[in-house]
Amino acid sequence: MITTDRHRILEIFKNLVKIDALSCNEKPVADFVREFLKGKSVTVTEDNSGKETGSNTGNIIIKRGTGGKFMLTAHMDTARTTENITVVVDEGTGKIHTDGRTILGADNRQGMATILYLIELAENNPEIEDFTAVFFTCEETTLGGSKNLEVPAWVEAGIVFDSSHLPGKFVYRAPGSKTFTLEILGRASHSGIAPEKGINAIGIAAASIARLKQGRLDDDTTMNIGIIEGGTATNVVPEKVKIVGEVRSFKPQRLEEELERVLNTFEEEVKTAGAAITKAIYEDFTPYELSPDHLAYQLAYNAIRATNMEPQPVISFGGSDANSLNGLGIPSVNLGIGAQNPHANDEFVMWEDMVTTANIGLNIVRKK
Ligand SMILES: [Zn+2]
């Protein structure tokens, strides 16, 4: 029976985090993957998502044998640079972190290391079934890679190795999110000489926001106005103001209702003041909810149990590549890999959690 080699997985991880690749600049990571897989019995292709995302590479798709029924995924970009990284492994505790000058990049190179390790392990190994692996671009900025994935035709389910939860947990339900960018156009005028001639865009924004409830609107839904910019000088009636916010909900209908409420409120105030408004709506990610009979749910649940842990299906309030995949019609879950404090200089992962994640992965791809 095969088991995880704790030193080998750490070695692959260390090699991966050395590569500096921010969102839309993942090509060096893609090149590393091609080099790593050279001579192995897999087919490596790159999709055309680069045209949509603006990245210098597409998503990397790796097909082992027939490609099987499911794909294991991770993303190639990091939220912040890992240039000149120093990885430290505490001998006593097994805590893997940096010297504090950079992030560790375990989000999401640990997910990548797990998947590459499984592909390596699968070579000439009759215990492991065929599967597909996909490495995405642009996760940290727009989820652009996964949103624009050219979905392999044979794939029916996805396991995303990118939740900061501890191994044993997996996200089966997550909200959708839409961002709204509004620009109110009033009229500039001298604030002392001719204030009557001006239309105060900041005043309109303030009146609108004062009418809107923000924060948690119900169990499923939140709304937040996070950016406001406007005005030019204290003696000028402000002509323009820009407002950027988001609505999140587990229920698509509630999301639309709240978004409409926001837009209507601004429109009413703009109309009353005789100003104008432009609106841009962007879908950040679509919501999803998997039931226990979905293949992705079962794969995660059973593999965690086979690793002698109690599976814990959890809800997330954030978005991930799993949202995109579900949006593309591929039911997917986001697996906890134990990469903690993501995006911070004190990001870390316990070596034990790295090994447990690989063991869960192994139980996903092991023939049943
Ligand atoms: Zn991530």
Show the helix and strand layout:
Layout (H helix, E strand, L loop, with lengths): L5 H12 L9 H11 L4 E5 L3 H4 L6 E5 L5 E6 L11 E3 L5 E4 L7 H17 L9 E5 L7 H4 L9 E7 L5 E6 L1 E10 L15 H11 L3 E4 L2 E10 L9 E10 L2 H22 L2 E10 L2 E2 L5 H12 L5 E4 L5 H7 L4 E5 L12 E2 H15 L3
Helix pairs in contact: 1-4, 4-10, 6-7, 8-10
The structure holds zinc ion.
Q: DSSP helix count? A: 10
The Cα radius of gyration reads 24 Å
Domains counted in the coordinates: how many?
2
CATH topology of the largest domain, which one?
Aminopeptidase
What keywords describe this structure?
alpha+beta; elongated; Aminopeptidase; binds zinc ion; 31% helix; 368 residues; Alpha-Beta Plaits; 10 helices; 27% strand; five-stranded antiparallel β-sheet
Protein architecture, described:
With 368 residues, the chain is of the alpha+beta class. The protein folds into 2 domains: 6-174 and 287-365, Zn peptidases (Aminopeptidase), CATH 3.40.630; 176-285, Alpha-Beta Plaits (2-Layer Sandwich), CATH 3.30.70. Helices cover 31% and strands 27% of the residues. The protein is built from 10 helices and 17 strands. The strands form 3 sheets. Strands 1, 2, 3, 6, 7, 8, 14, 15 and 16 form a 9-stranded mixed β-sheet that branches. The protein has a 5-stranded antiparallel β-sheet with strand order 10-11-12-9-13. The chain has a 3-stranded antiparallel β-sheet with strand order 4-5-17. It starts with 5 loop residues before the first helix and ends with a helix. The mean pLDDT is 97.
